[in-house]
């Protein structure tokens, strides 16, 4: 996918599930996105600091630093220095996916995807 200036859009996929990241990477690459991956919030923040991304596809419930912690860190930055966040969650043992996503929305996530989601929902969220 390209932006208005014709440059490829870039996405960072942040999820602790290797298979899920692989599927998302393949889908986004086929839609002409530049894609990088991170397995947790710490790695995501490092990559966000090193490279600018158009969009961060961010799992909310992960071990180590989770997506909510990433959002809290990004909230400290000026609006112009924050990537657009598409939050995703399927829930966990202590919280539902819907609740996790509502928390993410309150912390600045622009789009919400409840796992499992369709390819159509993914493409719409990435626009």
From TrEMBL:
Gene Ontology BP terms: phosphorelay signal transduction system
Domain Response regulatory, chain residue ranges per copy: 10-127
Superkingdom assignment: Bacteria
Keywords, in A-Z order: Phosphoprotein, Transcription, Transcription regulation
One Pfam family of this chain: Response_reg
Annotated signal sequence range: none
InterPro entries named in the record: Bact_response_regulator, CheY-like_superfamily, Sig_transdc_resp-reg_receiver
Residues modified as 4-aspartylphosphate: 59
Protein name per its UniProtKB record: Response regulator receiver domain-containing protein
